[in-house]
Design a protein that fits this description.
This protein is an alpha/beta fold and 474 residues long. It is built from 16 helices and 17 strands. It has an eight-stranded mixed sheet. A five-stranded antiparallel sheet has the order 13-14-15-16-17, with helices on one face. Helix 6 runs antiparallel to helix 7 and helix 8 packs parallel to helix 10.
């Protein structure tokens, strides 16, 4: 940047679990605001824990060390991320993703960070779920204690509002009416907007919106015309493991409900995020660049998804092919980029745009990997456990994708860049080509053994554990 040009703010908006094809069909408002798109963006991993540090550091999971066997970010400093190359920027964040939160150390690289829980509409007020799990009182005594603690809280009115909305939402949860509260989009947008307006400029602002992440259900504010699911239906109505085990035909109606509600959630996010972008642009002094992407996508039981659902233990195109759009991109960028682009280069792209050198980096080969079972899956004593807990790597080159795992499976796929989230199996490979394996500095089987042998865990409170259970992580 020259001295006469102000340094732009940057907002990175991560739409959790949003695959490219559904985004392009149902997030038209964001696309209409964008002036740059990357049609062939690939995530570096297939679920939240490894994906976030990968796009922040530019490293694969086996290099930064955050994955299934180590879910904490405390070993990663600000200087390890691209934020270290933005010294003039204040760094803020607001996230509804429980893994991208202070519980797991993700907040440490930011100056100000807010963990958002869907049941806690006012983050400064009392956490109602935590309050309930810590109390032994029942009935009237619990209400009296809640009122006492609310009155003594630093933010009493917000605490009372949290309690009232929590109770109302609980009463309506199983009723044949729309779910009262969304899965955090409103609160994330409000909190992030406040940080942008009140914070110092220039700033970098990170947000994670979880509303497209399962379990999906109808929510007040969703476009009811977009789905045919009953108001009280949720994706808890089917057994993910049974579907992933091959019995998907037994759930065809539920799968269709799930796809429709997933699309409806993306449409809702499109509205909320578009409003957020407009508000931040209007209320900040300097130019602000917005990048909209996803940490990973979602399998929805299509043939190209191997008839799997969710984002457990696979590297399908449904999981790795993610949207990347830029609103208010600097001059000099193309409207559309069609070369393969990796999340590993997202930080360099952001720094380049801030410094006035916005030319993206494109690789002739794009890698990705997942280290073990990250989301749900069978119990360790299940005969299928080892399959779902395998480590997987893949590399893209032109229209070819090669994939191999710690169980000895080696497969070649064909991708078609005009078909988002699509791949077709070409056949098994006798040997993984050197042009793929040479991108990784530790052999796959060696790293998997090393990761298992040095597994780390973090103690979480009952409220966090409950949230992880709701999301299907445990």
């Amino acid at each position: 940047m020259t001295d006469s040009q102000p340094t732009p703010n940057v907002v990175l908006i991560v739409l959790d679990s949003v695959r490219k094809d559904f985004f392009d069909e149902h997030a038209t408002r964001i696309q209409s605001r964008a002036n740059v798109s990357f049609d062939q963006c690939r995530a570096a991993s297939s679920w939240s824990v490894p994906s976030h540090p990968s796009f922040m550091t530019g490293l694969l999971p086996h290099q930064h060390g955050v994955h299934t066997h180590n879910r904490v970010f405390t070993g990663i400093s600000r200087d390890d991320t691209f934020l270290g190359n933005l010294p003039s920027h204040s760094a803020y964040g607001a996230s509804a993703n429980v893994y991208a939160s202070s519980t797991f150390g993700f907040d440490a690289i930011f100056d100000d960070y807010s963990d958002i829980a869907p049941h806690r509409r006012f983050p400064d007020g009392m956490d109602m779920e935590k309050f309930i799990q810590e109390r032994e009182e029942t009935g009237l005594a619990r209400y009296v204690e809640f009122l006492r603690q609310s009155a003594a809280h630093e933010h009493p009115l917000q605490s009372l509002a949290n309690g009232g909305l929590f109770k109302l939402n609980d009463l309506l949860r199983r009723a044949p009416v729309p779910k009262l509260l969304d899965d955090g989009a409103s609160v994330v947008a409000r909190s992030a907007r406040s940080k942008a307006v009140k914070g110092d400029e220039p700033f970098f602002l990170f947000t994670n919106f979880m509303d497209a992440h399962g379990p999906v259900h109808h929510v007040r504010g969703y476009d009811r015309s977009m789905h045919s699911a009953p108001n009280d239906w949720t994706s808890f109505n089917f057994d993910d493991q049974d579907i992933n085990g091959g019995n998907w035909k037994a759930y065809e109606e539920d799968i269709e409900y799930h796809r429709e509600l997933y699309a409806t959630a993306i449409d809702y996010l499109d509205r909320k995020v578009s409003e957020f972008i407009d508000d931040v642009q209007e209320q900040t002094d300097e130019e602000t660049i917005f990048l909209i992407t996803a940490d990973h996508g979602e399998n929805l039981v299509y043939p190209a998804d191997n008839r799997w659902i969710g984002h457990t233990s696979s590297l399908t195109e449904a999981l790795l092919h993610v949207p990347l759009y830029i609103v208010n991109a600097p001059d000099g960028m193309q409207d559309t980029y069609t070369d393969l682009f990796s999340h590993l280069d997202l930080g360099d792209l952001i720094v380049g745009m801030v410094e006035g050198n916005p030319d993206p980096t494109f690789r002739d080969r794009v890698p990705a990997e997942v280290v073990g079972m990250g989301v749900g899956g069978p119990d360790p004593d299940d005969e299928e456990y080892e399959f779902w807990d395998r480590m997987i790597r893949c590399v893209y080159r032109d229209e070819t994708k090669v994939e191999w795992d710690s169980r000895g499976n080696q497969t070649e796929y064909r991708i078609n860049r005009s078909k988002s989230s699509w791949q077709e199996e070409v056949g098994s490979l006798e040997d993984v080509p050197e042009w793929a394996t040479e991108l990784f500095d530790v052999p796959l089987a060696d790293y998997k053994r090393q990761a298992e042998a040095t597994e780390q865990s973090v103690d979480v409170d009952d409220a966090t554990k409950g949230r992880l259970e709701d999301l299907g992580y445990i």
